[in-house]
Amino acid sequence: MSDIRVPSQGLSKFVVRADGFTTGSLSWQKRVGGKTMIIVIFVIILFLLAVFILLLPYILVAAAIGIPIYVTHRIIKQHRKNVAAAIWKAQRARRLTASQRYRERLTRTRLRKFNLSEKDAELVFGPRWRIKLRKKHIESNHGFFFDIIAIKTKLLFDLDYRKKILQGYTRFSIRSMSLIDSVILMIDSVFNEDPEIVRIYKKFMNENKYYKYYYENQWEYFKTHKKTAIDPNSENTFDKTEAYKILGLDVSATIDQVKKKYRELALKLHPDRNMTDTTQTEQKFVKVNLAYETIMAVC
After folding, report:
1. What Gene3D superfamilies does the record tag this protein with (predicted)?
2. Does any domain span residue 29?
3. Looking at 14-18, 86-90, 127-131, which range is the least confident one?
4. What is the pLDDT of residue 170?
5. DSSP 4
6. SS3 of 298, please?
């Protein structure tokens, strides 16, 4: 196959093949294509710049009007939010202050009413005595009433706590009554403050058959003697021989005999079966229980 060469007339040379196909110089194509692309991009940039220049006054006017409006709106909104927060905080502070004033008055009133100094209150209620004295009589599932019940229980059954109260002192140089008497007066006063609450409380506690005999009666005994009838150091504490004697048994009796005799005496002396002479029967009932506990502890 032969080639026919044709002059390029100053551009480049073409190669014409005998089969009719023509190819151009690759370098020429690259140069023409690159220049065309640059021209197109330049025209587009000029067009966009012209549009921007035409729209620039309108953009500036819109910005001059819109930006101050937006900034003003944000400032007003934030100001309203800050004012609302400040009002809420001030109202909350006033509520807390009023509540605190009420609690402080309640604390001072109770100290005077129960004849307690701050040192006395710390001995009776512990380091958190201010918080306890500030409580309302009943608050949901807690309150001053329930703290008084706890103190009453500790006086009856916690010997270390009772000893601390019996040896308690006051900062006042003159005192009309001892600390233990003031505590007893406080407990009875709180119980008499709301009879309906006390009625509900006793109804709930009476579900325990031993509540009346080991709690209420011991409290009445404690108010007179400043101890309970079942204290380890009381005159009702027995040795092994006395315990057997109270149950009417010999010292050589077996455990089964002791249990049987105890059940017989407990049924016989139970206060529910002896309504005529309640006080004497309860004292015997307590002695029988103490004697039985003494024997079982030894055995």
Report:
1. DnaJ domain
2. no
3. 14-18
4. 45
5. E
6. helix
**Would you give the end-to-end CA distance of the chain in angstroms?**
133
Q: Are residues 138 and 201 in the same domain?
A: yes
Instruction: Give strand pairing partners of 22.
Output: 16
Q: Inter-axis angle of helices 144-157 and 118-125, to 10 degrees? A: 70
Per-residue CA distances from 208 to 149, 212, 214 (Å): 16, 8, 10
**Three-state DSSP class for residue 115:** coil
- Please list the residues that pair with 16 across neighbouring strands: 4, 22
HSE value, Cβ hemisphere, 13 Å, CA-based, for 244: 12
Strand order in the sheet with 4-6: 4-6, 14-16, 22-23
Model confidence, pTM: 0.49
Total domains present in the chain: 2
Could you tell me the sign of the dihedral formed by the alpha carbons of 153, 157, 161, 165, in that order? positive
CATH number of the domain encompassing residue 277: 1.10.287.110
CA distance readout (Å), 181 to 126, 155, 176, 192: 18, 12, 10, 16
The C-alpha atoms of residue 222 and residue 125 are separated, in whole angstroms, by: 19
Chain segment 49-92, per-residue pLDDT in tens: 888 888 888 888 888 898 889 999 999 999 999 999 888 878 77
